[in-house]
Every structure is written in C-alpha cells, then in structure tokens.
Amino acid sequence: MAMATSPHSLLLQNPTPTFLKNPKLPFTAVPMTSTRISPTTTAKPMSIKCAATTTPIQDLRPNPPESQDRVFNFAAGPANLPENVLKKAQSELYNWRGSGMSVMEMSHRGKEFSSIIQKAESDLRTLLNIPQEYSVLFLQGGATTQFAAIPLNLCKPDDKVDYLVTGSWGDKAFKEAQKYSKPKVIWSGKSEKYTKIPAFDALEQTPDAKYLHICANETIHGVEFKTYPTPKNGLLIADMSSNFCSKPVDVSKFGIIYAGAQKNVGPSGVTIVIIRKDLIGNAQEVTPVMLDYKIHDDNNSLYNTPPCYGIYMCGLVFEDLLEQGGLAGIEKKNKKKAELLYNAIDGSNGFYRCPVEKSVRSLMNVPFTLEKSELEAEFIKEAAKEKMVQLKGHRSVGGMRASIYNAMPLAGVEKLVAFMKDFQAKYA
Amino acid sequence: MAMATSPHSLLLQNPTPTFLKNPKLPFTAVPMTSTRISPTTTAKPMSIKCAATTTPIQDLRPNPPESQDRVFNFAAGPANLPENVLKKAQSELYNWRGSGMSVMEMSHRGKEFSSIIQKAESDLRTLLNIPQEYSVLFLQGGATTQFAAIPLNLCKPDDKVDYLVTGSWGDKAFKEAQKYSKPKVIWSGKSEKYTKIPAFDALEQTPDAKYLHICANETIHGVEFKTYPTPKNGLLIADMSSNFCSKPVDVSKFGIIYAGAQKNVGPSGVTIVIIRKDLIGNAQEVTPVMLDYKIHDDNNSLYNTPPCYGIYMCGLVFEDLLEQGGLAGIEKKNKKKAELLYNAIDGSNGFYRCPVEKSVRSLMNVPFTLEKSELEAEFIKEAAKEKMVQLKGHRSVGGMRASIYNAMPLAGVEKLVAFMKDFQAKYA
C-alpha cells in the first residue's frame, strides 16, 4: 500500500469523530481496507493507508483561547471583560444562535435584537433589584453626555443644584451643569488632592437644591462612597460609571443612577441610565432630542438605533454576574482582591503609598506611588514584561493605578502583589 | 490488546496534527507499539490501541462559518457587514493580534487602539480622498445627535439656514434645527410622498442662509442625490448616513458630511463627521460638551472614551473597501445590483411598483409595493422561508423595502429577483 507522503494525512474509519467530518480540515478521510474496529472484537493488525494531500496545515480555528496568551490588564476603562463572555461573544459573532446573521447586522427592531435588549434589561433589574418605578435606558454618548442631560431634564436654567465633588469626574459634571442650571459645589476634596469624602452631617446643602450629585466612585483618584448622603430635597443623583454592578445598591435611594458601561459591564459606547419615572418629561427646550429622557423612555431606548453590539455585550456580562450568584458575592470577591492589594501597599514600610483615606478607598481603582518616584517608569516596564499592563496612573495624577474591576481575576492581583514585593526587594 | 470501548478514542502517532495536541480534545493520545510511519518505508501492519475515555465529543470550535447558514439580510440599518470582515473580527475578538486582550478591553489611549483609530481614519481619508483642510471625527450619538450639533456649532440662534427636504430624515434634521437656529424648508417632497428631488436652479435659497442642508440618501423613501446643489453661501451640509462609502464623493463641495456607520460601514454606535476645519470653534454656549466639534477635534475624538469596537469594525470595513479597489469600483457593483432590482420591478407589468422618480432612485434602498397589496404579508413570509429577511417596508410607509448596501452580495439581489418573478407567476 502506498505510504503517506504527507504526515498530515490519516486514514480513519467509522465512527469518524465530528471534527474529521469537516471537509475544510487538511486531510482526506480514505476508507480503510480492513475490518471495522468494534468494541467486542479482538484487535487485528491493519494497514493504514494515507492519502497524499497538498493542502498545508492551517489552524482553521480562531486562535485557541489559551489563557496563557492573556495579559493582566489593569486599565481603568475600557477594561477587562470576563474571559467566558469574550469566548461566548467570539463563538457567536458570525452567526448568532442560528439567526443567520451577526448581532452587529440585526435590525434593532427585529425579534432577535428585541430579545437581546429585553433580556439585558431584565437581568440588570434582577441584579440591582431595580424597583418598577424606575426606567432603564441604554443610551449613547457616555457619562459625559449625562453631565448635560441631567440638569437639562431635571432643571430650569435658574434652578439650584448641589454637587459634592470628590474627584475629577464630579468636577466635570459640575462644570457642565453650569450651562443649564445654577450648580454649587457644596464640598470639594480638591485642596486635599481628592483623598477624602466628608462626613455627611457636616455638609451644607442648599435648602431648595433640586438634587444632590455625587460621583460614587472616582476612577482617577480611587475614592469611593461606601454609604450615601441623604439629599435635603430627596433627590440623589449618582455617576456610578466605575463601580456599577460591583456591589449591591439600594436603587430606591436615588433619583438617577448613570454609568458608562466600559468599566465593569461592557465595551465603550453604552451608557446605562436608571431613572425614576416621575422625573421624566420636563426637559428644557434647548435639550437636544438625543438627550431627552422622555424620548428614550417612550421608545424603550429605540428612538433611534441604539448601540446594539455594546448592549448585547452588557447582556452577556449581566448573565455572567447572575451565574456567579449576583452582586453580594461579587462584592465579596472585590473586597478580597482590594484588601490584598491595599495590604501590600500599606505593609511595604512606605515603599508604596496610597494617599486615599482608608475608609473611602475604592474597591475598583487603586492609585499608588513609589517613595522613590524615579523608579516608577521601571516599575511599569518590568510589570509589563510580566504581562501586567496599563498600570500607569492617570495623566493628571501620575504615579501608578491598578484598576481591579469585577473581571480582574484574583490571580491578577496576586501576581501584581508578588511582583510588587519582588520589586521592592530588588530596589529598596 | 484492549479494544476501544468508546468510538471516540483513537490512537495516533507522530506527527500529530495541531488539533490533536490540544489536551481539551476528547481523546487521549497513546503511544503506538509499532514502528513510526515514515514516507519512505513500506507499510507495516500495526495494531491500533485505543484508550477508553469518557469525554463526550463536543465540537470545540466555534460554529464553522458556513455561508449556507447565512441569510440574505435586506435590513436598512443596522445591516449586512462583509462576511470576511465578520470572520476576521471573530478570529481576533478574544486576542487582538498578540496583544493579549480584546479590542473591547483596550485603553482607548493605549498604543494598540491608537493604531486602530489612526488606521481607520487614514483609510477613510484614502477612500474618500478627503482634503487636509477637513477633520475626521468618530463620535457617538447617531446622526440624530448631529441634527442638533450642526446648528449648535455653525449658527447663532437667530441665524437663518435652509433645509431641502426629500424624505423623513431631512425633515427630522429640520425640526431639530428649530431649537438652535432659524431653519426654513426651501423645498419639500412631502406633498408628492417623497418621490422626487427638485431641479436645483428652481430652488429659492435664502440669501443669507448660513448653510444648505440635504439628506444625500433617504433611507425610508429611497431617494438619492446623484448631483448636489450649489449653496448660495457656499456651505453645503449632507447627511450621508445611508450611502456613505457607496460611491466616490467630492468632499470639497461640502462643509460637513456626517453619517451613522450602521448602514454601509460598521455596526451601530459610531457616527462619522467630516468637517472643514475652519467651521470648528464657534459653538453656542448651550452646546453640551459632547456636541462641541472643537472639543472632539482638539482631542482627536478621544476627549472621552470613544466607541472603540465600532471604530475598529469600521476600520476593517474600510480596509475591505480598499482591497476591493476603492469606491469607484464599489459604485459599479452597487449600480449593477440596483439596476437588476429596479428592472425586475419596472418589468413586472405593474405587479411591483416603485414610486420614486427614476433619476433619483437610490442605489441603497429600494422601496416597492405590490399592486395586490393584500399579498404583501405573504411576500414577506415566503421570502423569509427562502432566507431573505427584513424586506418589510418602513413602518411609516408600508409596502416592501430592499436595502442593498455595499455588503449585500449580487447573489442576494439575484435571488430576490428570481423569487419576485416566481411569486408573480404564482399570484398574478
């Protein structure tokens, strides 16, 4: 019998494993000349006849999702997504569940995408236990668009509103609100480099302020609200972009919660707004239609074409969070990761320092500096060699920042901590 | 020798094809007891020893991208994407080109994403031959946000502007502009059900209008500008959402061209704005920061987090268009497809009717009705059985609509035309 000239040819007989039935694979199945193997017969010697083929071996699958190719990505957003979510998205990118099209190709008004957006909303409602009196909107434009949308929708131009500013993002929200309302910064952490949150009873809230605005987690400065102030007039607004779905939240305390997805729950391009329904419907006349909550609410986020693929990705993340048991369990995991890292910093005898007041340190974003600041570039460089990337601090702050969102595995934090210890041993 | 108890177990010897090295596959490689097969030796009888395993067969690859699973998707947007673009996106979703992360996880300010957005812009400039005096912006918020952004950026509230309304989208743009300027509809096709474009010399343009706005292709009504009017004051603004990159355009004729990506060039969530630089920088005070062209231009679309994955997808589409030889060739293909379909309609003895004036019929969106309108539901249903979907006309218009963007293959139009002939034969 002729022998194989290509080592990539094989002769196999029934039953043929599924993968071998694929005609695209680089070998040809050639019938065997001897008896079928069956579980009950004794082995007989057989000849293996190989058919030559000129088809070169190609790995026709997409790059196998080998975890060893992944880096530990400490970016602040866009950020890590859960590996299983990415694999699922990859597997169904070309043809979503037998529909014959990608999610990216679906009509946003068709039945397939309707099921996707409805499930995403439903799962989010479950995760956050969102009361029925709240609408959930999936919008474009980032949290930065909401900085304008909120005063535009809730205020007349002369209305007073209070901003409690604990970092750069609260400050940006305040500045944008100046165009559409009369905002006041009732407290700012700026003079202390945004390392604190004040005691709430010490706050001097404006008596007739329409709302009190906070940024629940300041991404750049690593300052996170653990409890929330009670607004004098009952309306608390929170930017939760960088800690959304990282822990349970009592939505009923808020008038509006908004979040860019691209920290904890999806890719960039989707902004989620959870808004109490009675607050909808009084937008100022200069409000662009795309910033008018009533338009979006009346149309279930389908007034125009929503960011469909981003919403789909958020939906996969919500499912994954539910499969992990929901936000109470997620919070535990996040606390464990954060504790590991903060302990490493605090236990370094000053080699590493985190300036944030301990009681308000973020579980999501951990800024720190090196006592020997001249070593910071080396730290970044050596960490990157160890496949830990995006550790550089925000350009407005310098130093280092490790963002450890939901999807950062414990292993990533452990590796970082081990690296930090080694680095210290090397350079102390 | 023990025989296999599971038909899914095989014994294979070196060289082991790549896929068999994967430990996740459901069988175990067990060393053969006989001589290696080599290309030069004669076949020797050998025993095949199979190791039993209980791992069930699973197809571990993502669903193979078989074209026969695809439908012909005539949706108006989101819409078809080129198959090779989808396959490429799928293959690199989990790990983009060795970076160890997905595009969805990249910092928008990192070197990987910088290369992506810069290449996308560069390729678009090549495709459309965009002069250097123009900026290219990748924004969120859809064309609908641009309806507000354009008058906000180009006008004072009392400035007059002209709108030439040839369909629903031009009408929406006009209505939004009323908030921020003094717009006038200088011509409307509404009384003739949006089936025409007027002769340009008959237009009564406002002498001191800041700009003249057109919708270059009306998605709902299938009316497309083949040539462009000359604005009295030199500033022509065009919404090209639904024919962007379907044919060459002389960008220098326009002050601004804007387009939602989700017809011809990408998924939803990205809006491309091509704007002459001298028009940037005079936004009204009430302009939300996210609608201010200067903010975006100064920051190369990275003022805040852009819609990264959508921009990446657009980049893949631009590469694909360049590989096809650019927009002149694309236009030829589109003309051929459109001609096939319009001829089928016009040659049906009135069984099918397209109401649009022949000289302005869109190459992208083909609306038509059945003489026997009671058959329309059946038409949709039977077409869907043949895997041609999303043929229903826009809800404001009824009837049928076939959107045949760049990525609709000729085969899809041929199939539709054949189906239409059969359907007519069946029901005439």
Automatic annotation (TrEMBL), chains A, B:
It catalyses: O-phospho-L-serine + 2-oxoglutarate = 3-phosphooxypyruvate + L-glutamate; 4-(phosphooxy)-L-threonine + 2-oxoglutarate = (R)-3-hydroxy-2-oxo-4-phosphooxybutanoate + L-glutamate. PROSITE patterns: AA_TRANSFER_CLASS_5. Pfam families: Aminotran_5. Gene3D superfamilies: Aspartate Aminotransferase, domain 1 (3.90.1150.10), Type I PLP-dependent aspartate aminotransferase-like (Major domain) (3.40.640.10). Involved in the plastidial phosphorylated pathway of serine biosynthesis (PPSB). Catalyzes the reversible conversion of 3-phosphohydroxypyruvate to phosphoserine. HAMAP family: SerC_aminotrans_5. This is Phosphoserine aminotransferase. It comes from Rosa chinensis (China rose).
